Every structure is written in structure tokens, then in C-alpha cells.
Amino acid sequence: MTVLRARGLGKKYRRRWALTGCDLDLPAGHVTGLVGPNGAGKSTLLGLAAGMVEPSSGTIEVCGDVPGSGPAQLAKVGFVAQHTPVYANLTVAEHLRLGAHLNPGWDDALARDRIARIGLDPALPAGKLSGGQRAQLALTLGIAKRPELLLLDEPVASLDPVARREFLRDLMESVAEHGLSVVMSSHLIGDLERVCDHLVVLVDARVRITGEVEHLLATHRRLTGPRRDVDTLPADQHVVSVSHTDRQTTVLVRTEAPVLDPSWDVGELDLEDLLLAYMSNPGTGRPPLEVVR
């Protein structure tokens, strides 16, 4: 089952395309990490998926319908924006009552338990909370809505390491217990490694690569050997990045086949290596995107 499908999706602000030519099929029941440099289009994609903005081109379908198309569709999607918006004059308890009033699937026990566990005073106005506490409140509202798809835009950026770990644990419990699907943008690669099993990399407003994390790592290799022209590589070895010294060439390739050339030392990549390679090399002149499954 696909929880988000996009075809030729684009969003233009005046003369600048914040997202263009986006084709995606995100599987349900997974945690998808949305990664890319600042300005790559991550927040724009999440805003389109939440129905907060309308596309300039192409189509997007979320949980089987057009984002923001009506109350039934809105109830299926939770969204926590980057700056974790809450109402400064409302208390924590009033936020929970508002959440219960607005969301038919509201899990009040989960919300109250989480608020108690993270130590938020229900009587305290949100304007008196620290940045990290406001983020925790917003995240609680997003989870307690019990959506089918939870969209998180840099959700843990303002949390300390202990709070960040607790939130990610709660998130994974929700995925396991309720089949929750998640799309989460983040710059924190350690957090992505901990919770994400699917990945989308955006660079320069375009999708560079998408697929299951395990398969992405299995189909990328670092080749190191005597200096050579990478144009001589086999056709099934798609170059992602290349660097040269006077005597040595290092190239990162995407391939489904084993590397048989004995002149190469073949090394595996970790997630950080993979992400930095794609984000540092927009792909001009290289083979077009292929979805890796």
C-alpha cells in the first residue's frame, strides 16, 4: 500500500521552483527519512503533503485522496511544522482539550500519559514553556491524533539528547502498535539511522534517490584504485561521486552487480557516506534518478 504518491509534483514561488518534477511512491507502515541541504524542498514537500500549500504542477495523493480535500482526509494526516507552533496563551491542558475537540480519533490516554512522563505542567501556558518543551507538546498533539500518516518537519531539532531519544522511542512504538506511517525530515543522521527504514534524498528541488535504507546501502560501493577515467567503468556502475589525486581515483558507484575489476579496492558505505555523496553532488551529467527498492 502506498501512503503518498506524487507524479510530476512541483511548487513554484514567483520565479523559483522550490520543488520540481517530483515522482514518489512512499510505502505505508514505514518511517521515511526526508533528507537534503537547506533549501532543497523538504518543507515544501511536507507542506504539499499536509495540504498547507497547493502544487504548481503535477499531482499528489496522500492516504488515498488529495491533501486537505475534506475532514475525512485531514483526520488521516498529522503534521508538526518545523517551528512547532502552539498557542502561547493556552495551557498544556487546554491544548489537549482542543486536540480532543478537533480530532475524532484522539487518544486522550496517550496524550496525558506522555505529558506526565515528560514532566510538563498541565496548568502552564505554552508561552511559558522552553523551546524544547513546546516541541514536546506539539509532538504529543501530532501523535495523539492517531493519524495514518504523521509528517514531521525537523521535529527533534530543539530537543536535548535524552528528550530526543524518548520521542524517537515513542514514535517507533506508535509505528509498531498502530501501523503508523511517518515522513520525517531531519539533519541528524544518527536519528535517521535509529528509526528510518526508507529514505528520500532531495537536492536542488529534485528527488535524487529514494528507496529502502537497507537496499540503498547494499547497492552502493566505494571503489579505490589507480588513477583512471571513470568513463571506462561498466555501464551498470552509475557514478555518484568521484575524486582524484595524482595517483589514485576514488569513486562512489550505484550498482546491482558485483564489482569484478581486481584493480579496485571495494568498500561499503554507511548512511552518512551515502547521504553526503548525494547532497554534495547534484548529479549534473550523471544518469537520471532510479528508484532503489
Automatic annotation (TrEMBL):
Q: Specify the species.
A: Saccharothrix carnea
Cross-referenced Pfam families: ABC_tran
Q: Where is the ABC transporter domain?
A: 4-229
The entry lists its GO molecular-function terms as: ATP binding; ATP hydrolysis activity
Question: Is Transport included in the keywords of this UniProt record?
Answer: yes
The record's annotation in InterPro entries points to: AAA+_ATPase, ABC_transporter-like_ATP-bd, ABC_Transporter_VariousFunc, P-loop_NTPase
Organism lineage reads as: Bacteria, Bacillati, Actinomycetota, Actinomycetes, Pseudonocardiales
What name does this protein carry?
A: ABC-2 type transport system ATP-binding protein
| PANTHER family, per the entry | ABC TRANSPORTER ATP-BINDING PROTEIN ALBC-RELATED (PTHR42939)
